[in-house]
Amino acid sequence: MHDRLRGLYAITDARVTDPKQIVRAVEQALLGGARLVQYRDKGDDDARRAETAGRLRRLTRTHGALLIINDDVELAAQSGADGVHIGRHDAALREARARLGREAIIGVSCYNQFQLAQQAVAAGADYVAFGRFFPSRTKPDAVPADLDLLCRAKRELDVPVAAIGGIGIDNAAPLVAAGADMLAVVDGLFAQADIRAAAERFRALFLRGSPG
Question: Angle at CA 50, nearest 5°, toward 76 and 88?
Fold first, then answer.
């Protein structure tokens, strides 16, 4: 599974709630080469969230991509998503594993704390995420992380590493060079006039780093 946890990780904009609009945008990202999609919606409209997750599940399957649900283990289970992404205040990793099973992908936000990443890996996380690396409109108060954290994670952790926070095509290359296996992008992808073209530019960063 680790070989699938690489490339552009498209995270839906939680400020956009219309299922049709989300699906259209995600389809363009997938056509441009996104390999993972995270559905992020903190709203309380369970019916809308279930509809959107189901549509995204079908879409990602069509494109051979992975669907991860942010924060909501039950929605991940009910929608048949590939896994869930949890954070410091979300469901415990072991509880998520018990609910979703051994094959589920469980990612954990580790902010700028390497110790959190070590703990997550020891508890069975499939990938860890660090950030924010740049000022972020999505999470303006998020703690800053630096490239040394990615370098250390690449050396010492045996799981893929995602970088998140204010990532755009103009600042993404150093993150990949430092060891980021995935670039988790919101505005740098979905706030662009041409989502597919933006995704293609991110995808090219990983093609350059491929063997041969």
Answer: 45
Is 139 part of the annotated catalytic residue set? yes
Tell me which of 48, 99, 139, 203 is the catalytic residue.
Answer: 139
When pLDDT is cut at 50, 70 and 90, the band that residue 88 belongs to is confident
CA dist 34 → 140, 182, 185 (Å): 24, 10, 10
Number of domains, the chain:
1
Share of the chain above pLDDT 90, in %: 88
> Exactly one of 6, 35, 57, 109 is catalytic; which is it?
109
| CATH number reported for the structural domain that contains residue 138 in this entry | 3.20.20.70
User: Rounded to whole angstroms, what are the CA distances from 69 to 11, 123, 205?
Assistant: 10, 19, 25
Give me the count of residues in the chain: 212
Confidence class of residue 16 from pLDDT cuts 50, 70 and 90? very high
| C-beta of residue 193 within 8 angstroms of C-beta of residue 25 | no
Half-sphere exposure of 65 (CA within 13 A, CB side): 28
Domain of residue 146: give its range.
Answer: 2-208
Three-state secondary structure call for residue 86 = strand
